[in-house]
């Protein structure tokens, strides 16, 4: 009698374990620190910054802030390479198929667009009710135009892909097999939101929006068994905000009224009349 074959590898039965998923997550944080240092060191040397002033320089100099933002992009690409090695076992398994990178779970592209729009509208409503949003990320965007554009690029073209691969791809799949759907949803939802808290603290409205986004994306991954819808929703959600960052100076100049002309003081007006009188006679 033949022994039953183990189920084929797929999104909910991945060829990697929880150790590999946590390892890639830890590596992603390590890469962000190391690559950031590699970008900052030459710039600080060129600027002649002393060691005792390094912390203040890194947090306040527009060029140093820009370097830190740009360094996120290569660290994301290196994390993507590490994820490929883990998922495929160095080319043994198809990368996209193992992650559920398709539409078979029921959600279509346009439904994802609609969900992203609803999430964004809900986020704006939360922010409207919670008040001003003064946080580290907001200050970073306001530090320089170059930092704002670099942030918009990373938030659109690398962050949604890498974050979905790591959290709702690697982590969720291995956690579901290890502990079941409920634990996988709970841990991934909370962990994804938790790592974003330092960026947005103490903007409670923004943190609440991140919690809503994380819960929705994780539930979609659990219900559909697919990662592609999560990525599309995340991409559109971040993309809309990035477009607003890029257009912010132009929107301000369009919306804000020019200042009212200041009426001349009586003294100046009197001097002008006297000058005209002398010129005439």
Describe the structure in your own words.
There is one protein chain. This protein has 281 residues and is mainly α. Helix 5 crosses helix 11 (228-255) and helix 9 runs antiparallel to helix 10. It has helices at 18-47, 54-60, 62-88, 95-99, 109-130, 136-143, 145-157, 159-179, 181-200, 204-224, 228-255, 266-280. 77% of the residues lie in helices and 0% in strands. It is globular, with a radius of gyration of 26 Å. The relative contact order is 0.13.
Quick take:
The protein is an all-alpha fold and 281 residues long. Helices cover 77% and strands 0% of the residues.
Question: Which properties best describe this structure?
Answer:
mainly alpha
Record the SSE blueprint.
Elements: H1 18-47, H2 54-60, H3 62-88, H4 95-99, H5 109-130, H6 136-143, H7 145-157, H8 159-179, H9 181-200, H10 204-224, H11 228-255, H12 266-280
């Amino acid at each position: 009698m033949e022994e039953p074959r183990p189920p084929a590898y797929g999104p909910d039965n991945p060829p990697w374990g929880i150790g590999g998923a946590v390892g890639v997550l830890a590596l992603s944080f390590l890469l962000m620190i190391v690559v950031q240092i590699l970008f900052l060191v030459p710039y600080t040397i060129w600027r002649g910054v002393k060691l005792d002033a390094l912390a203040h320089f890194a947090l306040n100099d527009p060029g140093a802030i820009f370097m830190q933002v740009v360094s996120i992009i290569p660290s994301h690409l290196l994390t993507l390479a590490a994820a490929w090695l883990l998922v495929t076992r160095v080319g043994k398994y198809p990368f996209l198929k193992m992650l559920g990178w398709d539409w078979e779970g029921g959600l279509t592209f346009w439904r994802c667009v609609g969900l992203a729009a609803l999430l964004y509208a809900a986020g704006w409503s939360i922010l409207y009710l919670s008040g001003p949003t003064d946080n580290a990320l907001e200050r970073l965007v306001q530090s320089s135009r170059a930092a704002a554009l670099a942030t918009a690029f990373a938030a659109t073209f690398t962050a949604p892909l890498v974050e979905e691969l790591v959290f709702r791809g690697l982590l969720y799949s291995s956690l579901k097999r290890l502990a079941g759907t409920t634990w996988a949803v709970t841990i991934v939802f909370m962990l994804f939101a938790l790592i974003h808290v330092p960026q947005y603290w103490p903007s409670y409205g923004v943190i609440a929006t991140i919690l809503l986004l994380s819960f929705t994306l994780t539930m979609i991954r659990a219900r559909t068994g697919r990662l592609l819808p999560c990525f599309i929703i995340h991409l559109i959600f971040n993309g809309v905000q990035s477009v607003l960052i890029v257009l912010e100076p132009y929107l301000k100049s369009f919306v804000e009224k020019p200042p009212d002309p200041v009426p001349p003081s009586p003294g100046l007006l009197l001097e002008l009349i006297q000058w005209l009188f002398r010129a005439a006679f």
